[in-house]
């Protein structure tokens, strides 16, 4: 759209009210004050004005523009715009219909070359472009590869904003927290020296890239005579990230330790008088492991203390380590990145593309622009970048945590925060994660994973989890759950629905179906649908393959048809007497700690039979068994004491 600077001819007067004859108007491409803009004397914008425009004998001029233009009004003698009388910005930047362009992706799908017809000759603030990508934009964080023997707890996040696709950021543990050194051996030397007469003690500290440890244990007392040195031996050899050892000694008869020397040898001869001992030994040692990093073949940045929170590196890359100590010296992470999404419209500049997320402007995630899906972009002058105003409809994956999902590593008791939404809380250890208040987070998703070998307990406080009247849920090793609040309580979701199927077994003419590697403290649900293959037989549940010697059992509830639920060996039993009778049962098994280290097994279930003549019976029972053996309860089996059965058995985790 062609825009006129004013209605009719532009007209100006001088300070006396006379026509501003010869005064100048300078036009520049907004917001660039170094690039002149063309203005025109006719509405069709085919006849260009001189630059700058000089007002005629009436103080007038026709001025039309086609792009966003900044105007500066100066005196007739001005040679530039350094002292303008007034200025007018962004003339011609009014909203216009979006420009439509097709995109050809280059450089790993993230850089787009856009062409339009007719060609756009200049960009201005709020310029609108609707383009259709040929390929999806990709995530800028490609992979994180760990090489080492210690804990793998570094997580890279944040869109990479650099310009070198395929670059590799390398992170290496260059110093770890060490224990204080062992006590050295100190003795009076046979060599003449200056050590002040009196009783002395010697200690060592280890020196690393990250700093100095606290002093270790003291040597035995050495009685100096004022004419000899003190020989120190038993100093550990230099190894790993330790660069040396510092020797500290008390003054004669004193208890404060003072710096003597830094050594890299295993022995040292102290030869100094007390008057020269002035620097006191440290009382605090190194608190955190440190890392060094570099980009590609660049210089290393060593000795950076691990904080346990987000640490910005460069070009948008952020890393987080779950713990600040316990790493292994020399362990390496390699993070491969690719360039972020950029759009070059008619070769006017390869500009980054951002989006609004949570009230902040951030670089694009992968698949924010999808092939064949029109993307509306607006040029933002302040950012000198494009803003994507309609990110592609989010693609919700099944709640299986992938390596690309943002992760927060948790190693101790933790209270969730709103910022955890959409993240994986990767938990290592045995502790409790306190959930948020459901009414405030209706419809939001959270992910919890047990990445260790302990038990993770989810606690909703006064609220229920999955609406069944309980406020806690236990996640065993390897378990990963998606949680959603409906505004009233929390619900546990998995890719297989609720509850989570651990295993299933199809059996044919079998005498038992056994599930192993059960976890004490986790609640399970055992469902079985079995058909009796012989004329008589009893189907039951057995724990740990134990015939019952270590069980003390009771039966609570009503047996409506006189079925035996517990035989003499205290194995849970349901009877089935007829060939071809199908037995269906659901038993919820709760392993808990009872009276110290004894294990309580609580089984609550319902069952039914279908047999000849469509006869149907229904029973309910609650069985509690206290296991007093030395082993944990780690297996459960469905058994038949006579004959065989055919069918299927399922084991679910329910809490």
Describe the model.
The strands form 13 sheets. The chain has a seven-stranded mixed beta barrel. The chain has a seven-stranded antiparallel beta sheet with strand order 43-53-45-49-50-51-47, with no helix packed on it. Strands 12-28-14-24-25 form a five-stranded antiparallel beta sheet, with no helix packed on it. The protein has no helices and 53 strands. The chain is flat and about 105 Å long. The two termini are 65 Å apart. It folds into six domains: 1-94, Tailspike Protein, Chain (Beta Complex); 113-139 and 341-388, no CATH class; 141-177 and 289-337, no CATH class; 185-276, no CATH class; 407-493, Jelly Rolls (Sandwich); 500-653, Sandwich (Jelly Rolls), CATH 2.60.120. The chain is mainly beta and 655 residues long.
């Amino acid at each position: 759209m062609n825009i006129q600077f004013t209605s009719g001819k532009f007209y100006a007067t001088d300070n006396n009210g006379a026509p501003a004859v010869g005064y100048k108007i300078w036009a520049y491409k907004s917001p660039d004050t170094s690039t002149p803009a063309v203005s025109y004397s006719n509405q069709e914008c085919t006849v260009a004005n001189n630059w700058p425009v000089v007002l005629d004998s009436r103080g007038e001029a026709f001025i039309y523009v086609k792009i966003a233009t900044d105007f500066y009004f100066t005196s007739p003698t001005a040679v530039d715009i350094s002292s303008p009388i007034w200025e007018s910005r962004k003339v011609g930047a009014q909203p216009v219909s979006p420009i439509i362009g097709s995109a050809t992706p280059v450089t790993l799908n993230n850089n787009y070359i856009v062409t339009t017809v007719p060609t756009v000759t200049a960009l201005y603030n709020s310029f609108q472009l609707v383009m259709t990508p040929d390929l999806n934009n990709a995530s800028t964080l490609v992979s994180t590869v760990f090489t080492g023997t210690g804990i793998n707890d570094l997580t890279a996040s944040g869109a990479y904003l650099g310009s070198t696709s395929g670059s590799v950021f390398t992170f290496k543990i260059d110093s770890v927290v060490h224990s204080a050194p062992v006590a050295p051996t100190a003795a009076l030397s046979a060599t003449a020296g200056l050590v002040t007469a009196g009783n002395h003690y010697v200690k060592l500290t280890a020196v690393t890239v990250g700093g100095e440890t606290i002093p270790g244990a003291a040597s035995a007392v050495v009685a100096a005579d004022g004419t000899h040195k003190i020989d120190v031996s038993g100093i550990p050899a230099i190894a790993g990230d330790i660069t040396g050892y510092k020797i500290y000694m008390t003054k004669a008869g004193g208890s404060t330790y003072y710096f003597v020397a830094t050594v890299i040898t295993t022995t040292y001869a102290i030869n100094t008088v007390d008057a020269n001992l002035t620097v006191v030994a440290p009382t605090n040692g190194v608190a955190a492991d440190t890392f060094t990093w570099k980009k590609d073949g660049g210089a290393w940045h060593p000795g950076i203390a691990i904080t346990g929170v987000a640490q910005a590196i460069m070009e948008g890359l952020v890393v987080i380590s779950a713990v600040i100590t316990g790493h292994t010296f020399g362990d390496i992470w390699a993070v491969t990145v690719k360039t972020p999404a950029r759009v070059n419209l008619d070769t006017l500049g390869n500009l980054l593309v951002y989006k609004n997320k949570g009230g902040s402007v951030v670089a694009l995630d992968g698949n924010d622009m999808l092939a064949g899906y029109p993307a509306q972009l607006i040029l933002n002058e302040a950012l000198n970048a494009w803003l994507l105003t309609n990110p592609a409809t989010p693609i919700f994956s099944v709640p299986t945590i992938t390596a690309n999902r943002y992760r927060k590593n948790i190693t101790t008791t933790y209270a969730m925060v709103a910022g955890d939404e959409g993240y994986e809380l990767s938990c290592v250890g045995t502790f409790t994660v306190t959930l948020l208040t459901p009414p405030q987070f209706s419809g939001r998703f959270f992910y919890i994973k047990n990445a260790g070998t302990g038990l993770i307990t989810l606690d909703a406080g006064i609220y229920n989890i999955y609406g069944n009247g309980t406020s806690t849920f236990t996640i065993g090793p390897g378990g990963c759950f998606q949680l959603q609040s409906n505004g009233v309580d929390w619900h546990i979701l998995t890719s297989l629905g609720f509850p989570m199927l651990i295993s299933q077994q199809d059996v044919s003419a079998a005498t038992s179906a056994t599930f192993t590697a059960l976890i004490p403290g986790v609640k399970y649900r055992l469902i079985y649908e079995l058909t009796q293959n012989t004329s008589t037989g009893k189907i039951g549940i057995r724990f740990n393959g134990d015939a019952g010697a270590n069980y003390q059992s009771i039966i609570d509830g009503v047996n409506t048809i006189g079925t035996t639920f517990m035989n003499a060996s205290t194995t849970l039993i349901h009877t089935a007497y007829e060939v071809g009778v199908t037995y269906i049962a659901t038993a919820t098994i709760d392993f808990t700690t009872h009276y110290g280290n004894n294990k309580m097994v609580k089984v609550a279930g319902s069952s039914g039979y279908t047999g000849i003549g469509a006869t149907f019976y229904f029973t309910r029972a609650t069985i509690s068994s206290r296991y007093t053996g030395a082993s944990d309860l780690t297996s459960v089996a469905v058994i038949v004491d006579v004959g065989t059965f055919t069918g299927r058995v399922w084991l679910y985790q329910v809490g």
